[in-house]
């Protein structure tokens, strides 16, 4: 398989997502979603992806676009452009599909997907910003505890400390 085909085989353009998900649901597949910037992919990301994959038949990971990340993390982020973040997450065996969104939060995308389960970090709580959208469509929120010290922001801070 060519690199181009390999790196895009799990990628779903947001404009085609609703139709693809409908087809998967007709096959009686349960869908879990997880979203984030996934900048500087690390073991904390791998842990939450693993845990999210256990909650349904298929896992769709939605990445914040570069503009979306900048809107809530600042102009110096993301460190890795969306194109490469999509490739990295697509390469993970536990991930079935990867997409992206330009908004500051994933609610519009989740309204299209209507996941059975939306996975989030426990630090966001059961009443996270996605809750109403997910529950409106019959889904549930599943929280995963964060591994202390393994957030991209923590890693960046540690690198900055070492370099000073």
Commentary on this structure:
It is a single chain. With 164 residues, the protein is of the alpha/beta class. The chain has one domain: Rossmann fold (3-Layer(aba) Sandwich). It is 44% helix and 17% strand. It has eight helices and five strands, in the order ααβαβααβαβαβα. The protein has a five-stranded parallel β-sheet with strand order 3-2-1-4-5, sandwiched between helices. Helix 3 links the parallel strand 1 and strand 2. The radius of gyration is 16 Å and the shape is globular. The model has no long low-confidence stretch (mean pLDDT 92).
Keywords:
alpha/beta, Rossmann fold, five-stranded parallel β-sheet
- The count of helical stretches stands at 8
Q: Roughly what percent helix?
A: 40-55%
CATH topology title: Rossmann fold
Shape: globular
Unreliable spans are none
E-strand count: 5
Average pLDDT: 92
CATH architecture field: 3-Layer(aba) Sandwich
What is the CA-atom radius of gyration, in angstroms?
Answer: 16 Å
Distance between the termini: 44 Å
Structure described in brief:
By secondary structure, the chain is α/β, with parallel strands linked by helices. The chain has a single domain (3-163), classed as HUPs (Rossmann fold, 3-Layer(aba) Sandwich), CATH 3.40.50.620.
SSE order and pairing:
Elements: H1 3-8, H2 14-26, E1 31-36, H3 43-53, E2 58-64, H4 66-73, H5 82-90, E3 97-101, H6 107-113, E4 117-121, H7 131-136, E5 140-144, H8 152-163
Parallel strand pairs: 1-2, 1-4, 2-3, 4-5
